[in-house]
Amino acid sequence: MFLVENYNDLGYQAxxxxxxxxxxxLDFVTQLxxxxxxxxISANITRTGETQPVFKPYVILSEGxxxxxxxxxxxxxxxxxxxxxxxDPVEALSIYIKEIENSVDFVIVMAxxxxxxxxxxxSAGLPIDLLLRSNTYRYTRSLAGESEIPVARVGNIGKYVGxxxxxxxxxxxxxxxxxxxxxxxxYAQKRLDSFKASAGDKSLEEYYADRSNLLNIIHSLQQxxxxxxxxxxxxxxxxxxxxxxxxxxxxxxxxxLQQVETHKKKYGITGPLERIAH
Length: 278
Prior knowledge:
Largest sheet: 5 strands, mixed
Number of strands: 12
Helix content: 25-40%
Shape: globular
Number of helices: 8
CATH superfamily of the largest domain: Metallo-dependent phosphatases
């Protein structure tokens, strides 16, 4: 209940039910949903003996002139859940992507899966534009990978919050990751900044005029930056991804902090407060 209340405050638009959420039983999760101001989704969780999903299999969100279909799936838990069945995520995606693909501009899959199921999803040839992966300790600093489908992972220990920004100019073209290109631009800029720090008020050309080897490195970095930026500008639907470390530089939200204290008192929790109020 505490987490759902905070998700409400954060403005969640959908929550994908994962296998670990079912540890206390399906009824516990459905009861939590009654307090949510957003839908719980899952395309492959059903009650035993039934075929229709317990939760909405997807939501369709409109942003500007575009429509995004968000479908949720999870992997089968390693433990038995009474009265509940978790079907194959690829089979469920095949059904519901077909149901919505003509009604949306882009299909986004929220996948609380293991590595094997993620690989199956990525290799299934489904028209997926973006996969948001949870239930993994891994995190990625770019969306580029072995698959043509962009994949975002932020890890499962609460160390990072991920952000995604996309510019859509042509809905008939795929999203293309530019985060790796931008990381290379940033790296080149850091190196250039170190040269500028040494140069002080002088221009790079003036300060390094008698050190041709360093000046060649500077010119190479500048040229590489320009080439990368030119490549980005040719991409019709760029999508960028990054991670925000939830470290001590991020101040605790006073409202959430008070909710944490109230929750601790309610359940008799003592001891130092962990930094979970970001």
